[in-house]
Amino acid sequence: MKVLIACEFSGTVREAFAANGHNAWSCDLMPSEIAGQHIQGDVLSILGDGWDLMVGHPPCTYLTVSGNKWLKDQSPRKSGALVGHARREARKAAVDFFLQLMTCDIPKIAIENPIGVLSTLYRKPCQVVQPWQFGCGETKATCLWLKNLPLLRPTNIVPERVQRLHLLPKTADRWKIRSRTYQGIANAMAEQWSPLERHTKWPNYFL
């Protein structure tokens, strides 16, 4: 399959699909952290390039419920974080970007995001997965919205439940660490969503 990993700079999911024999490409405004087939630029400009499957990781900064308190009109923040009208517009743009990915003409689509406003502004996710279901003893609830793809099956349930990402120090690259896909989840995506028969009919969760 020709696979697009949208909004990925780490190369984690791209390389998992490549290891399963697919022509996998990542696309992001940033360069790829590891060598591989990567397009640096706006992913919206390449959605019509004949992809069979897309896994999208749209930015979640303005889609999380934790940022709701900054939506009301208030004094500017010293950190420079958006508040009031500017933040409401940024949230609208983030939702619109998500919808452009989710409703594009690629046959098979999976879009991931943390638990946030998409469940109410769009629809509830098809499933919510955790790293501890895929061999990593950490918690990070990740929502998946699917089109013509099956739900991910847990591969290695482990007992640990550490909230490591919440304990990370507030460094400049903290957001990068938090945004990377866990290897176990990436492997499950590549292995479970990899049937090469183009006539295969998966349940359509895009309702």
Structure explained in plain terms:
A 7-stranded mixed β-sheet has the order 3-2-1-4-5-7-6, with helices on both faces. The chain is an alpha/beta fold and 207 residues long. The chain is globular and about 50 Å long. Helices cover 23% and strands 16% of the residues. Helix 1 (12-19) packs across helix 5 (183-192). It has a single domain, classed as Vaccinia Virus protein VP39 (Rossmann fold, 3-Layer(aba) Sandwich). It is built from 5 helices and 7 strands, in the order βαβββαβαββαα.
Strand pairing plus helix content: what structural class?
alpha/beta
Spatial arrangement of strands, main beta sheet: 3-2-1-4-5-7-6
CATH-defined topology? Rossmann fold
Q: Tell me the number of helical segments per DSSP (H or I, 4 or more residues long).
A: 5
| Structural domain count | 1
What is the helix fraction of residues, given as a range?
A: 10-25%
- Total beta-strand segments: 7
For the termini, the CA-CA separation is 24 Å
The Cα radius of gyration reads 17 Å
Provide the CATH superfamily: Vaccinia Virus protein VP39
Assembly category: single chain
Q: Write the CATH architecture name.
A: 3-Layer(aba) Sandwich
Tell me, briefly, the overall form: globular
**Uncertain residue ranges:** 196-202
- The overall pLDDT average reads 87
Order of helices and strands: EHEEEHEHEEHH
The biggest sheet amounts to: 7 strands, mixed
CATH class group: Alpha Beta
Compact summary:
This protein has 207 residues and is α/β, with parallel strands linked by helices.
Ordered list of secondary-structure elements with their pairings:
Elements: E1 2-6, H1 12-19, E2 23-28, E3 38-40, E4 53-56, H2 84-102, E5 108-114, H3 118-121, E6 127-129, E7 142-147, H4 174-179, H5 183-192
Parallel strand pairs: 1-2, 1-4, 2-3, 4-5
Antiparallel strand pairs: 5-7, 6-7
